[in-house]
Amino acid sequence: MQSLQVELGDRSYPIYIGDQVLSDSELLVRHISGRQVAIVTNETVAPLYYDRLLSALAGFSVTPIVLPDGEAYKNWQTLQSIFDGLLSARHDRRTTLIALGGGVVGDMAGFAAACYQRGVDFIQIPTTLLSQVDSSVGGKTGINHPLGKNMIGAFYQPKAVLIDTSTLNTLPPRELSAGLAEVVKYGFICDVSFLDWLEVNMVRLRSLDATVLSEAIRRSCAIKARVVGTDERESGVRAVLNLGHTFGHAIETHMGYGSWLHGEAVGVGTAMALEMSARLGWIEAAERDRGIRLLQNCGLPVIPPAEMQKADFLRHMSIDKKVLDGQLRLVLLKQLGEAVVTGQFPRDVLDDVLSTDYSTLSANSGF
Ligand SMILES: NC(=O)c1ccc[n+]([C@@H]2O[C@H](COP(=O)([O-])OP(=O)(O)OC[C@H]3O[C@@H](n4cnc5c(N)ncnc54)[C@H](O)[C@@H]3O)[C@@H](O)[C@H]2O)c1
Ligand SMILES: O=C(O)C(=O)C[C@@H](O)[C@H](O)[C@H](O)COP(=O)(O)O
Ligand SMILES: [Zn+2]
């Protein structure tokens, strides 16, 4: 087992990465202060992993809270059902919520923990690649609004993150690819040597090679922990973790949450950010093509949905959380391995990016 630390003063917490972490009772119990635990999971993950987790919690009073599965349920109604479950079982302030599932479960359980009786402890046990490399770390919690992605939420850090890499053995390939969108993101924003490594190891990653997967998870979590430790509440540098997300969130919102996976939308959004960085003259066309090829090698789409026109993107992007005083800010690449957050770009460049034929770019990438 490996461990990392998110350094946030008295709210610091460990990230454990191993292949049997889910059944490690001693490890888990170390981070639970009371006797009451609620496991928030969903109808897909519960039959796979609930019993294993329950057996590691002998001696605790455990309430299962099983949510419907899907991004479409990351909303007020589902959040309310978590509170219903907690109150019906008379959970008190020393309750610990455990999120067992992907990013949807983790974001909602974390937000519920932030709100329930004004805040109870929570632990993240992420079971998708995306949640293991990204959403379980850093304390962004929340739900979607029909008008915008993750618009209601709180920064609220877990007490610990337990990553059991063996859970990835049951993950569908499409979800694995979605997780890879956030893995390659770390290379694009701040670590070109990680990009090189991902290019070399992509086939092994996609075939669930345990050694390579756990290395990708460790490197991703290390980068995320460092960024979050520097800027917990995204007043500055943390926004680089949003590479591809302004375009991607527009796709998720426009298409109705769920038809496009978050990671797929981020894949397309990253291709668009690469294109914009190239049009601004910050990266070479060959670097853009290299980035697009890597996204395609992850098994990700790089072409925006045919249903979306330029005006659709602009409408959704105008309520992105990085908009300040009406000015749209985007995460773009100064070079591969160096991201900037900026509102300083000519408007016509953005218009061109939103009108680009990505099928031509995709065909030219050498994929
Ligand atoms: N808080 C953050 O910092 C942050 C970061 C990135 C993404 N997110 C959010 O995370 C969400 C996406 O997370 P996700 O990609 O994990 O999606 P998800 O939570 O919907 O999980 C994907 C699918 O995999 C299933 N699943 C989960 N674990 C499984 C397993 N081990 N085996 C088989 N099936 C399994 C789920 O039931 C679901 O059907 C989005 O809502 C996104 O906005 C948040
Ligand atoms: O942790 C962060 O910060 C991120 O931006 C990580 C993103 O991958 C993630 O999708 C996050 O939920 C996006 O946050 P938002 O504030 O843009 O909704
Ligand atoms: Zn994301």
Automatic annotation (TrEMBL):
What is this protein's name? 3-dehydroquinate synthase
Chain sites annotated for binding NAD(+): 69-74, 103-107, 127-128, 140, 149, 167-170
Needed cofactors: Co(2+); Zn(2+); NAD(+)
Q: Name one GO cellular component term.
A: cytoplasm
GO molecular function terms noted in the UniProt entry = 3-dehydroquinate synthase activity; metal ion binding; nucleotide binding
Q: Which PANTHER family match?
A: 3-DEHYDROQUINATE SYNTHASE, 3-DEHYDROQUINATE SYNTHASE, CHLOROPLASTIC
Species of provenance = Azomonas macrocytogenes
Q: Give the Enzyme Commission number.
A: 4.2.3.4
Q: What class of enzyme is it?
A: lyase
Q: Please give a single GO biological process term from the UniProt record.
A: chorismate biosynthetic process
Q: Record's superkingdom? A: Bacteria
